[in-house]
Design brief:
Elements lengths: L7 H26 L12 H19 L6
Helix pairs in contact: 1-2
Keywords: Membrane, Transmembrane, Transmembrane helix
Length: about 70
């Protein structure tokens, strides 16, 4: 980070959190409605797990590289 700019890692955390929220939300929608996409291994519910991992990683990056923290 140079000068008073915001860290790129903070933006990456924000993007990961947004995408994780959207993917996890879609996975939960699939679970609730039972409308599962016709893909291989759909019974593993990958959108829920992948979205949750992305959301957790995004939250970590947002907290770790928060510009107000320094």
């Amino acid at each position: 980070m140079h000068g008073s700019g915001i860290s790129i890692w903070f933006f990456i955390g924000v993007l990961l959190a947004i995408y994780g929220f959207l993917i996890c939300g879609y996975g939960i929608y699939e679970l609730v409605t039972g409308h599962v996409a016709n893909v291989a291994l759909a019974n593993l519910h990958a959108p829920v797990w992948w979205g949750a991992v992305m959301l957790a990683l995004g939250a970590f990056y947002c907290l770790r590289f928060n510009p107000r923290r320094n």
